[in-house]
Amino acid sequence: MKRLTEERTKLVLEKLTKYIGTNVKLLIDRPDGVYCFRERKNRVYYVSEKILNLASMVNPDRLASVGTCFGKFTKTGKFRLHITALHHLAPYAQHKIWVKPSAEQQFLYGHHVSKAGLSRITENTSQYQGVVVFSARDIPLGFGVSAKSTADCKYADPMTTVCFHQADIGEYIRSEDSLI
Question: Which residue intervals define the domain PUA in the entry (predicted)?
Fold first, then answer.
């Protein structure tokens, strides 16, 4: 596992800032220890330094992964978040969308959230802002990008898309082979 280059670190932190804002600092300097980002085969892992030191004793050929896979770099050099990062993004999310129970299944199948399926949205959410999508019972379902601002959502047509789908927990079943 190698350290991220300065350029790649910037890409990862920019993507995380889109979803959790200044709370990115809380991901790295945690009360239970120091965490860091490491790269292996174009995938970025979020791992404790204690675990990283223990993993350094294992033969790299026999090591599948260490920590949580946050995403991967595409062939064009962009960083794409995976659903496996949701557990770490949800507590720190600054902008959230809650969907109605009738719209949960549609979102989990990979569809965008329409105004008819929107239950609540965080105040002052701007257009094209990264959001974490929750169920009505505050269970994180995935994340996306807001298609409308909070003010625009109030007066939008019921069939208007208010959140573009990025990733959801249904991917654990649909894409289980490619999530490692």
Answer: 95-174
